[in-house]
TrEMBL record, chains A, B:
SUPFAM superfamilies membership: lambda repressor-like DNA-binding domains, Periplasmic binding protein-like I
Protein name per Swiss-Prot or TrEMBL: LacI family transcriptional regulator
Presence of the UniProt keyword Cell division in the record: no
InterPro entries: HTH_LacI, LacI/GalR-like_sensor, Lambda_DNA-bd_dom_sf, Peripla_BP_I
Length: 340, 340
């Protein structure tokens, strides 16, 4: 590995023709072997010769060339999220990648930071994915779905709070989360309920529908619901806790377990008894909620499994002419512990 | 949007030739306009006509075709990590994407779940990225770097605990983190120090060098260091806490703040006084550490900023013949709070 920069600059990128020459076979044979084409019978010694020649020359197939020949790729594109996600999402995503790879797809996450709506769809379409799984942040529109399908995508799947025309929609109705939390608090006798609205960008796509669900659940119960903007830092939590008595609240749904931990600490520092004076409930059912004292009540969210989603992607790709269907795949239930 | 499946199946993917025909220009002009080629002067009305025709037909350029013409892409490939990462990493990653996009690169994260070492490098090379930024998990080897460079990558950058021949290395020496933690504990008079080793897969790439750093820092101080395997669940923490007295430890470096929170709770449930009987220090300087009582001491880690890394990628791409350089970019320092 002691080559000089000059030597490196002079080396050129090896091609499949170089491999064919070295192995003494045709370029087509090289392509069949290295792309694992199952439909063509090639002897094991020939396969070995091709692989060894490729290895010696440092040749790897060009995915772009292959996709141009095939007219599409086996690429499933997942727009990378800009929202920080917890361990639950990470597990889901890992499982999804794993399951798609087993089905012979390549999973690519595309950073769409700074792109919105149809611009994002256009950027995704340039990569000619066979399927796009949108995690619902970038505002996929029916027009965006159309751009993707016209560029050759066989399936567009949206995991989002709302339906998008033309896409298979896994509707994750975030309103259910807020609804569950408030119903739990009302059942435990609370009547003046604050709902934490995180100030962090990106989270409004979750916070707004959760708040709507909270309002809907409180309707006709005699309970009132009040939005409480909160940044994820100690100062913001301390400021909110300092004016807590003036708010006249007896409960708070704190968006998720992280915000609940932050607010609970600030309330306890103000000597507000939990749950005596104020009940606190989070969401996500994280381990940390069980480590708090009092133990944190939470909303447990059942997400679609990565494996199930992978099967749905594959099904949608293999039957692109089927009318897109909606799937209700999120369940939510309150988990009662000590803080409510 | 009420087309029948049949109608959809009959539509074909529009090409740049279709756009050229509709706009009354050459295919080359379509390519210049839609790929924003700055070196060719085209009038604004013509540009508008091309864009409108593309919009009407639903045409977007094909990144693969463009990259075949150019011989390489503007794609910077980041292998997607299989390790759950916290908010600090997420911020870094977001910033990196943003900065690279401003420099006109496209950032693609590639899921290399289930691939290892040179197999991963080969899979990355198929996408013909202009640069690869490896986050050090998949065991990039000098041979892997060679595969990537021979396939046309102009720069391979590795953020990893150890150097890789042929790559620009941003050495994040994890040993420093463990070293900082143990030096802090020794300075505070502790002599029998446990080091948490997470059982979760993927974390061993961090845990092992951190442990080595801990051992090195304890050498010649009279302190002993003992590895403590721990899974991230309450049962594992309770089992460790139950046999705590038998271990004869007066301090623990708990890998990071999450594991520290888990273990601290279990120790407190066993009525072990912190820091009186056992000092606890984490790492990562998360907000949650400040919310615990006692407040958690931690190791603050200075990571390279996304912006700085983006500039380094761009520099490396523009001067591919320069000899790869190493950059020491991680700093670590202990933050003393109440738990030590």
């Amino acid at each position: 590995m002691s080559q000089t920069p000059k030597q490196f600059a002079e080396r050129s990128v090896p091609t499949s023709a170089d491999v064919a020459r070295l192995a003494g076979v045709s370029r087509a044979t090289v392509s069949y072997v290295l792309n694992n084409t199952a439909s063509v019978r090639i002897s094991e010694p020939t396969r070995r010769r091709v692989r060894e020649a490729a290895e010696e020359l440092g040749y790897v197939p060009h995915a772009a060339a292959r996709s141009l020949r095939a007219g599409h790729t086996r690429m499933v594109l997942l727009p990378a999220t800009s929202v920080p996600h917890g361990p639950q999402f990470h597990r889901f995503f890992h499982e999804l990648q794993w399951a798609l790879r087993r089905l012979d797809y390549t999973v690519v996450q595309y950073g769409s930071v700074g792109l919105d709506g149809d611009d994002a769809a256009r950027a995704w379409a340039e990569l000619r994915p066979v399927a796009v799984v949108s995690l619902g942040e970038v505002g996929l529109t029916p027009h965006g779905v159309d751009i993707l399908k016209r560029s050759g995508a066989k399936a567009v799947i949206s995991l989002a709070p709302r339906r998008v025309e033309g896409a298979h929609c896994l509707v994750m109705d975030q309103r259910e989360v807020g609804g569950c939390a408030v119903t739990h608090l009302v059942q435990r006798g609370r009547r003046a309920i604050g709902v934490v609205m995180p100030r962090e960008p990106g989270l409004e796509h979750f916070a707004q529908p959760r708040y709507e669900g909270a309002v809907r659940a409180a309707a006709d119960t005699g309970a009132r619901v009040e939005p409480l903007p909160l940044a994820y830092d100690e100062e913001s939590a301390a400021a909110l806790a300092a004016r807590w008595h003036g708010l006249g609240l007896d409960a708070v749904y704190a968006f998720n377990d992280d915000y609940a931990m932050l607010l609970m600490r600030a309330l306890q520092d103000e000597r507000i008894d939990i749950p005596g004076q104020t009940a606190v409930i989070g969401a996500d059912d994280l381990l940390l909620g069980r480590l708090l004292r009092p133990r944190l009540s939470t909303v447990h969210i059942d997400m679609v499994t990565g494996r199930l989603l992978a099967e749905l992607v594959d099904q949608a790709v293999r039957t692109p002419d089927d009318r897109p269907r909606d799937h209700e795949l999120m369940g939510a239930r309150a988990v009662h512990r000590e803080s409510t």
